[in-house]
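Protein in question filed below.

…
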Amino acid sequence: MSLLALKDLFARHRARATGLWRLGQEPGRTVFMEAGDIVFASSTHPLDRLTHLLVERGKITQAQLDYALTNLNPGMSIGKNLIEMGFITQRDLLDVARAQVERVVWASIATPEVVPAFEAKELDATTVRLPFDTPAMLLASVLNLQDRERVLEELGPLNQVVVLEGRRHQELALPADLVRLPGLLDGSRTLLELSREASVEPFRLGAFILFLREVGWARLLELPPLDRRALERALDPAEPALTPALPEPPPVAQPSLFAEIHASQRPTTNLEHLSEALDELGPDDELDDIPQTVPMPPDPEPEPALPIHHEASGSTEFQEPPPPAESGPEPPSRRRPLILLGLLVLALVGAIWFGLRQAARSRRATPAPPANLEPVAPAAKPLPSAPEPAKPAPALEPEKKVEAEAPRTPTLNPDPAPAPIPAPISAQKPGPAPTPSRADRLQTILKGDLSQALAQGALQRKALQGRWTLRLEIACQGATLQHAAELLKGQDPDLFLVPMTLRDGRTCYQVFLGSFGSEAAAREAARRLPPLFHAEGNRPKPFRVAQIADRQ
């Protein structure tokens, strides 16, 4: 890789130079620059030629190229000759010309050890000027470099930090793996930390940072060298500090057996103060015998305590607090009626709720009376007593129940028995739509109804899974589709359309013919097509129906 060529081309772009940038003599490559932007490029290398790219990208075949070179019009370029012969379109020529310029730039940057030359001059009016995003082209060129050692050597050590300058980097459409990087370039992370935090391979990160530096959108600052010993001490875990050993207790002299016997004869508690107090007591201090009180059995039910005002006239001594046993919970005999009463209330509430719910269900289940019943005469008197609720008739004899109850109410119109509710008929799933015939599809295309033709084509495509078909052409205008159908109208063709989205976002239509059992049968049918389907660069191509593409 020639870093001289890379750095010189970036320097011309930063200086907004205008002229011809050349690399190599023969064969050589030339880049046309205007105000620092790349507008065109040419090359004498065989792999960079326009004709080679046309064949490589499948725009024309080698046989068509040989025919065009044999019958070349010397007054026109090779591109215009191919357009006049109908092999390519103007759009194909423009796409391949842009690809040629990108290949020349990429190859120039990747050429090893060649010194470039620049001729500053104004470009001629006849020079083709193609619209390019020059920073995006240069970024793609740098990311495509393969010499890992040279790129990292030119970039420098990985302990550098990156500081952005300006906001031009926001105009670039970065690849998915580099989208997070601009937000991390705040000068606080080294290249190695950026690679680890953004999960980007170091070589690809280095190529991107090299582009930012050479295009003038960032600066690299190297951190001061680190003390390797201090770094090792910081990385190695510190050894745990050992606590000093506790001092050993001094040896205690063990008493002899005789000393222990003498010590056991001395009391361990000092009782001298008690003996002195007993000596001072006289006969007057003696107390009478205290009668022993027999504890009374507790009352079965403690009486409630008297109010406070009744006790005010008594002794002024403080009343002793009641025993803790009296302040406990009530005996179970008093709580049992309350529990039973609560359970009874809950059962009553549940029964009422259940009855209301059953009544609501019966009202919802009773069918509405028919609308054509005759109204009851207003002069009719009500019955003296409410009629008894009708008991449910047995399931086996419904007709006898109706006959027995009919004569009971002669003055009222009896309600007819509710009509049996028919079982719901399960909705039948509609069957698959029938595949339109070839005559219907032909007439739809001839009428120009593209939406109906696409719907019919989708059904036909679904029906032909596993078969082969023949693509006649790709057309974007309805008139072209009608013209193709007119050419095959007399042969009762089996035509159907499939949409295709082109690279520029337009939606065009693929015209397919027939259903074949193999690719060879489809190619044989292509040879029998009218000559117009083989002219103007058209190439009928067989496809397996399951592999028909919807996007270019």
Remarks:
- The mean pLDDT is 76.
